[in-house]
Amino acid sequence: MAAEKVCIIGAGSSGIAAAQVLKARGIAYDCFEKGSYIGGNWRYENDNGMSSAYRSLHINTSRRVMAFKTLPMPDHFPDYPDHFQMAEYFDEYADHFGLRETIRFRTEVVSVDPVDGEWEVTVEDADGKRETSRYRAVLVANGHHWDPRWPEPAFPGAEDFEGEQTHAHHYREPDVLPGKRVLVLGIGNSAVDIAVESSRIADKTFLATRRGAYVIPKYINGKPIDELSNPITSMLPLSVQRFFATRALGVASAADPSAYGLPKPDHKLFEAHPTVSSELLPRLGHGDIAPKPNIDRFPGGRTVRFADGTEEEIDLVVYCTGYKITFPFFEPEVFAAPDNRLPLYRRVAAPERPGLYFIGFIQPLGPIMPLAEAQCEWVADLLSGRASLPPAPAMKREIASEERKMRKRYIASKRHTVEVDFYPYLREIQRARKPAAQPA
Questions:
Q1: Per the count of CB atoms within 10 A, which of 178, 191, 235, 401 is most buried?
Q2: What φ, ψ does residue 250 adopt, rounded to 5°?
Q3: Cβ atoms of 371 and 14 closer than 8 Å
Q4: Over the chain, what is the mean pLDDT?
Q5: How many helical (H) and strand (E) elements, i.e. helices and strands, does the chain have?
Q6: pTM for the whole thing?
Q7: Domains parsed from the chain with CATH numbers
Q8: Residue 393: which of 362, 332, 439, 346 has the closest Cα?
Q9: Among residues 209, 170, 217, 166, which one has the least CA distance to residue 188?
Q10: 120-135 pLDDT tens trace
Q11: Which of 177, 398, 122, 387 is nearest to 288 (CA)?
Q12: Cα radius of gyration rounded to whole Å, the chain
C-alpha cells in the first residue's frame, strides 16, 4: 500500500509553517521535534540542543514584515521583539491553528532513506524506542544555524591558548564577561550583538574581522529600515537600489564604516549580507570597542597576535564564524551540503530525490518566515498535484545558472551559498506555483 502521509522534520518556525499549510490543505502529515517545545532556534535554551539564542537576542527584521501572512504578530510587541516574545508568538501560532497536537515532541529523526519511490523514516523517542514508517514525501525543516563552524583551519597556536575559546552558538549569558578582556571575531549580526554587550560589561572588548562590512541601522527616519523596501522598488536594477540605499545610509552615518576604525568594505552594498546594528558604530566611536584586523596566531599564554603585528592579552575569544549546513539523519550519498552548497531547485526541491523538500534553508536580505511560508505553499501545490516540477536535467541546469549568478553577485563565502533577495525570491516562488510557467 502506498504511503499517504508526509513527514516534517522539526517544529521551529519553518516546521510549524509547513504543518499549518499542509493541515489547511488536508494533506496528512507527521511532524517530529527533537525537543519539548515549539520554536526551534528562537526557543531560548531549547532542550533539543540546537538553539543559538543568547539572552539579549532580538530579531533584526521588524515584526510587521517578519510575521507569517496567516497570523500577524501582536500589536503590543515592539518593532523588534526579543526571543521570548518570538517563542510566545510561535506558541500562539501553533495553538491558533491547532498544530500542537499534531507534533510528536521529544522524538528525534535518526535516519531518512529513499526506498521504492517513498521515504523510510526512523525516529527515536525520549526512552530510546525506535520506530520506522514510510512517507510519500519529507519536508526538512531542522534549520541551518545549529552546527557551529569554527575557523578553518584553526589559527596557529589556538590549541595552546591559555584563555577561554567559545563559539557564538554556545554564548548565552553576559555573566561570562565581567572582569575579562574579550575578543569577538566576526562582523555578522551575532558578532556585533555580543561585542556591544561585552563593551558594557567586560574590562575591555576587541572586535576582530578579516574584511569590512556595511553596518545598517535598524531605523531610518523613525521607521524600521526593512519597512522602507517594497515590491516596486525591488524591481529596480540593483545599481539603482544601491544608489538610493547608499544615500540613505550616508544620512544615517553608516555608509563608510572605515570612519569608525573598521576595514573599508572590499565589495559594494548588497554584494554581501549586511550587518544590522544601531549600537555598534557609537560604541566604536566612544572607544568602548576596539577594532582589530584578523587574528594571525596565538603565540603563547593569553596573547593574541593580529594580522597587523599588534598583540593583546585576551581572556575570552568568542568565534562568530557562522554555521555548517548539516543533516545528521541523511547518509552522505542520500543528501549532503559540502561547503554549505545546497543543490536545490528554487532552494527547495532536490532534483535527484523526488519527494524531498527543504523549508527555510535560505539567508534572505529581509525576513525569512514569509518566504518559508511561501515555500510550503508551493510544496503543498506539488503534493496535491496543482503544480509539477520540471524534469531533473532542467532543474539541474537552473541550479547551475543560479549558482553562476550567486558567484557573480556575492563575495565568495560559505555564508552566501543560500542568500536570496526577499521580493525577487518571493516572486520566483509565486511563478513556480503557476503550471503554465513550468519549463517543458
A1: 191
A2: -60, -40
A3: no
A4: 92
A5: 9, 24
A6: 0.93
A7: 6-147+323-437 (3.50.50.60), 150-319 (3.50.50.60)
A8: 439
A9: 209
A10: 999 999 999 999 999 9
A11: 177
A12: 22
What digits encode the pLDDT tens for the residues 206-230?
Answer: 999 998 888 989 998 889 988 877 7
Q: Report the candidate in 261, 273, 164, 259 with the shortest Cα–Cα distance to residue 206.
A: 261
Specify the range with the lowest mean pLDDT, choosing from 118-122, 145-149, 192-196: 145-149
- 205, HSE (Cβ side, Cα atoms, 13 Å): 27
Shortest CA distance to 14 belongs to which of 379, 373, 417? 373
User: How wide is the angle at C-alpha 299 spanned by C-alphas 298 and 302, nearest 5°?
Assistant: 65
Helix axes 369-384, 422-432, angle to 10 degrees: 10
154 phi-psi bin (left φ>0, alpha ψ -120 to 50, beta other):
beta
> Phi and psi of 31, rounded to 5°?
-115, 125
* Rounded Cα–Cα distance for residues 139 and 11 (Å): 11
Q: Which residue has the cell 502529515?
A: 29
Question: Where is 359: in which H helix or E strand?
Answer: none
- Per DSSP, the three-state class of 6 is strand
Q: Is the pLDDT of residue 244 over 90?
A: no
Cell of 302: 593569553
> According to the 3-state scheme, what is the secondary structure of 253-281?
CCCCHHHHCCCCCCCCCCCCCCEECCCHH
3-class DSSP state of 136: coil
Q: What is the pLDDT of residue 255?
A: 57
Say what the pLDDT of residue 440 is.
Answer: 39
Q: Where do we find the cell 573598521?
A: 262
- Give me 180's grid cell: 575579562
Q: How far apart are CA 139 and CA 356, in angstroms?
A: 6
Angstrom distance (rounded) from CA 54 to CA 231: 33
Q: How does DSSP classify residue 58?
A: B
**Bridge partners for 32 per DSSP:** 9, 104
- Residue 437: band (very low, low, confident or very high) from pLDDT cuts 50, 70, 90: very low
pLDDT of residue 375: 98
Is the pLDDT at 253 greater than 70? The verdict is: no
Cis bond upstream, residue 265 (ω within 30): no
Q: Is 23 helix (H, G, I), strand (E, B) or coil?
A: helix
